[in-house]
Hints:
Layout (H helix, E strand, L loop, with lengths): L9 H21 L16 H23 L11
Amino acid sequence: MDKRNFAFTKTNYILLLAGVLVIILGFILMCGPSTTEAHFEPDIFSVRRIKVAPTVCFFGFLFVIYSIVYRSKGEKRDKE
């Protein structure tokens, strides 16, 4: 199989991996102690878990979409 028949290039895969790592970082930021019936944990309403982490995940998903549609400037795709 010829190299030009692949849908993604090496750059696409690197960008995709970076986007997935940003999404994982967002989910890690959402982690923390939980509230039980015996103890209320006010940290569940922290800015980090409510605003920052979902925003990081959102930008990670946007970056993944960008990595899928990214085409380098020197690359031309033939119409079939």
